[in-house]
Amino acid sequence: MSLFDLPPIPDVPVNGENRGYPVRRIFCVGRNYADHAREMGQEPDLEAPFYFTKTPAALCLTGATVPYAPGTSDLHHEMELVVALGASVFRADREAAANAVYAYACGLDMTRRDRQQDAKDKRRPWDLGKDFENAAVIAPLSKTATLPPLGPQSIRLTVNGDVRQEAKLDQLLHDVPAVIAHLSGYYHLGPGDLIYTGTPAGVGAVEQGDVLKGDIDGLDPIELTIGAPEGPA
User: Which Gene3D superfamilies does the record cross-reference, listed alphabetically (predicted)?
Assistant: First the structure.
């Protein structure tokens, strides 16, 4: 018998299903659009993707109002395509990687940009900047069988009705099969794994009261409202 009970494994709703998709791991791809890499002061890296992770405790479902994140004065939005895996893959080629995709969703990779920059300046991990409560926002999953192939679909984000981010999915530097194939060289990937595939240019700060709305052609939209911070500033 355990000393205490842990929270249940988080589920993401799946369109057309009465059961949710349980999440065991969250991988995120960094600087996967050329213009975003440049706005972060880096040249695009075409050699291979790189990653950071978030714990499932960071998940937040669309439609929520969340507190302004603690420990930051520079909370940023990052609109992303999220991939949900439905089959096990290890050292996969592109075909096996593509076949492992179960579903897609709209996601928001919320970022404490000042804490991320602190880590970069000191050559330390990005955890405080990226992995915190409500930092991995997600809309319901849409199964790949119901969708056309990825490519020219638009991805966009508005804040209070003003467009902040807008691009096409075929502008990803490393597309979905490439990311899964590469990542599977380092992990035994499988059902329960989410991959946030990177954000277009236009990331920026949000404030208390802001309403974020994002969409990708063919997928359920995502929405998040930024509430007041908890406790003392």
Answer: Fumarylacetoacetase-like, C-terminal domain (3.90.850.10)
- Bridge partners, residue 60, by sequence: 137
Predicted TM-score (pTM) of this structure: 0.96
Q: Tell me the per-residue pLDDT of 209-226, one tens digit each, with 9 for 90 and over.
A: 999 999 999 999 999 999
Nearest-angstrom CA–CA distance, 30 and 34: 11
Where would I find the beta strands (DSSP E) of the chain?
11-12, 21-22, 25-29, 51-54, 59-61, 64-67, 75-77, 79-85, 101-109, 111-112, 136-138, 142-143, 154-159, 162-168, 193-196, 204-205, 211-216, 222-227
Domains and CATH numbers, the chain: 22-227 (3.90.850.10)
pLDDT digits (tens, 9 = 90+) for 74-90: 999 999 999 999 999 99
